């Protein structure tokens, strides 16, 4: 039943049969699985379009909760007025659960009601009430607010009708967005006659009714940013005229007096200006500003409380530190007194032992001087020995350098010998080639013999030159062999010197290990270093070459 009524009030399309299916008495429906609140959000509230009567919706919610929560004590206001106060509470309350209305909003509401009653505002009385309220709680619930207004604490001397009219006026302004209302004369568009109508000004429309009970509505004047209002001079026996111009129509209206005329012109013009600026109604804008101001003050208060807590914590820490320092100072003073007492006791003992220690110190000093002298002598001997070893090490280095230089000379001679051997081999091969060519030319024809003879003579001359060069190479090879023998002797001498120094060092300390000289066995040398074959292999290769040469001849 509740879901059906909610759908009806909120203009949500619904099927009674589907509702019956949702609420079957089993464990398969959405209500059984999820509970009613998820069902309410998913199947009803999410489908609301906004085109529903909010007063009727509020009245339904009031019906659900008023009987349980409304006070049973007699009040100066009717149930209808209590309902309107409850709706106003929902508008002015804070956006958090449980809903409460803070003292600032209570003051705003009571001021509006007092002004509507035409009474004076008792600020001092409310300040006392506010102080008493702040000491016990942050604000009032809806039912406590109804009890406060219904008790007549702030409307003393006013009858029930006046209070009811004031609540109705505040309700119209805050909830129904009624900016102004009252009786005025309106000129008809067809008959051009003047009829009295009850006008109600809202943020975007002026509605006019037959009477103030709002039952018989006669029409609307739609307001937008293009509308304007202007005063008219008196005419046709009508006074206090003004004109409302819209895009499609123009409305002539006559107020009861000049004050009402000016109030209506100013109210309509303010409404049009708000529509042009896209601003909300004044009471909603004022509520938003009050809320932002409260949030700002609350944030500042929280920041101040946080700073006070930080200062208090810092102060407590400082107090603890000071207490700790004081205790440490007291303990240090006690320790200092105890140490001073002990120092005086030990000073007498030290003075008694000082003479004995002094005598003992003299004896120890004498022994130390004797030991120092002995150690100095040993150190001098050790340094002399080190200097001798350093000198021997330098000589050994020189011998190693000589050996290294001799090896380099030997390597140079070996490379020279190899180069000469290569040149000698090349010359021999060239001589053999010329000899073969000479033998071939002998077998040629007689017609070519003379020419060949001349060529032979030239080749023999070249052969003689080559033989001379070969002899020169032989001489150079012999000189290279002599140089090699000299270098070999130097190397042997350097090796002997190295061996003698090695024997000396081994005899002296045994600390330095000398590099042994290389092998003394003779090796064949090529242009690229030591040969990869022995003399026997070289002779075998020479015999093989000679055999091949004889075969080719």
Short description:
Pfam families: EF-hand_SWAP70_N (PF25530), PH (PF00169). The chain is α+β, with helices and mostly antiparallel strands. The protein is about 65% helix and about 10% strand.
Q: Could you please describe the fold and organization of this structure?
A:
α6 runs parallel beside α10, α7 (103-117) packs across α10 and α12 (282-442) crosses α13 (449-508). This protein has a 7-stranded antiparallel beta sheet, with helices on one face. The protein is an alpha+beta fold. Among the domains are: 1-52, no CATH class; 178-280, Pleckstrin-homology domain (PH domain)/Phosphotyrosine-binding domain (PTB) (PH-domain like, Roll), CATH 2.30.29.30; 379-411. Helices cover 67% and strands 8% of the residues. The longest helix is centred in the middle third of the chain and has 161 residues, at 282-442. Pfam families: EF-hand_SWAP70_N, PH. Residues 177-273 form the PH domain. Its main location: membrane. Keywords: Cell membrane, Cell projection, Coiled coil, Cytoplasm, DNA-binding, Membrane, Nucleus, Phosphoprotein.
Primary descriptors:
9 strands; 553 residues; seven-stranded antiparallel sheet; elongated; alpha+beta; 14 helices; PH-domain like
Write the layout of secondary structure elements.
Elements: H1 2-9, H2 16-22, H3 30-34, H4 36-43, H5 54-69, H6 79-92, H7 103-117, H8 123-136, H9 142-150, H10 160-174, E1 180-187, E2 194-202, E3 205-209, E4 217-222, E5 228-232, E6 241-245, E7 250-254, H11 258-277, H12 282-442, H13 449-508, E8 525-526, E9 529-530, H14 535-552
Antiparallel strand pairs: 1-2, 1-7, 2-3, 3-4, 5-6, 6-7, 8-9
Helix pairs in contact: 6-9, 6-10, 7-10, 12-13
Domain PH: 177-273
Main location: membrane
GO molecular function: DNA binding
């Amino acid at each position: 039943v509740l879901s059906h009524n909610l759908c009806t009030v909120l203009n949500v399309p619904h099927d009674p049969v589907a509702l019956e299916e949702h609420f079957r008495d089993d464990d398969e429906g959405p209500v059984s699985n999820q509970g009613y609140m998820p069902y309410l959000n998913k199947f009803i509230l999410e489908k609301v379009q906004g085109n529903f009567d909010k007063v009727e919706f509020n009245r339904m919610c009031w019906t659900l909760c008023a009987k349980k929560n409304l006070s049973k004590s007699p009040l100066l206001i009717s149930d209808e007025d209590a309902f309107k106060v409850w709706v106003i509470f929902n508008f002015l309350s804070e956006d958090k659960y449980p809903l409460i209305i803070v003292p600032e909003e209570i003051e705003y509401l009571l001021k509006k009601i007092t002004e509507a009653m035409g009474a004076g505002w008792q600020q001092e009385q409310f300040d006392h009430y506010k102080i008493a309220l702040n000491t016990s709680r942050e604000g009032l619930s809806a039912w406590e607010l109804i009890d406060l207004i219904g008790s007549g604490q702030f409307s003393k001397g006013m009858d029930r009708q006046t209070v009811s009219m004031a609540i109705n006026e505040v309700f119209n302004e805050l909830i129904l967005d009624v900016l102004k209302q009252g009786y005025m004369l309106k000129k008809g568009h067809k008959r051009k006659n003047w009829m009295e109508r009850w006008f109600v000004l809202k943020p975007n429309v002026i509605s006019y009714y037959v009477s103030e009970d709002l039952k018989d509505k006669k029409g609307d004047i739609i307001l937008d940013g293009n509308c304007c209002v202007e005063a008219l001079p008196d005419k046709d026996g009508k006074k206090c005229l003004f004109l409302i111009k819209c895009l499609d129509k123009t409305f002539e209206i006559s107020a009861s007096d000049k004050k009402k005329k000016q109030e209506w012109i100013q109210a309509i013009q303010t409404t049009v200006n708000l529509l042009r600026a896209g601003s909300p109604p004044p009471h909603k804008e004022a509520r938003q500003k009050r809320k932002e101001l409260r949030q700002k003050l609350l944030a500042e208060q929280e920041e101040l409380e946080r700073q006070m807590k930080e200062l208090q914590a810092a102060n407590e820490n400082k107090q603890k530190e000071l207490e700790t320092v004081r205790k440490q100072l007291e303990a240090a003073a006690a320790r200092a007194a105890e140490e001073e007492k002990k120092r005086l006791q030990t000073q007498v003992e030290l003075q008694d032992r000082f003479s004995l220690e002094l005598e003992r110190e003299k004896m120890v000093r004498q022994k130390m001087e004797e030991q120092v002298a002995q150690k100095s002598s040993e150190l001098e001997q050790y340094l002399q020995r080190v200097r001798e070893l350093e000198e021997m090490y330098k000589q050994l280095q020189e011998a190693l350098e000589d050996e290294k230089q001799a090896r380099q000379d030997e390597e140079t001679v070996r490379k020279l010998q190899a180069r000469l051997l290569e040149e000698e081999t090349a010359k021999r091969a060239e001589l053999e080639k010329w000899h073969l060519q000479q033998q071939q030319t002998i077998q040629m024809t007689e017609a070519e013999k003379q020419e060949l003879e001349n060529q032979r003579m030239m080749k023999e001359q070249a052969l003689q030159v080559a033989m001379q060069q070969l002899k020169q190479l032989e001489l150079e090879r012999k000189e290279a062999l002599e140089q090699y023998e000299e270098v070999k002797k130097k190397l042997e001498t350097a090796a002997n010197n190295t061996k003698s120094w090695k024997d000396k060092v081994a005899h002296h300390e045994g600390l330095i290990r000398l590099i042994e000289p290389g092998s003394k066995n003779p090796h064949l040398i090529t242009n690229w270093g030591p040969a990869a074959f022995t003399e026997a292999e070289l002779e075998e290769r020479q015999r093989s070459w000679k055999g091949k040469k004889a075969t080719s001849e």
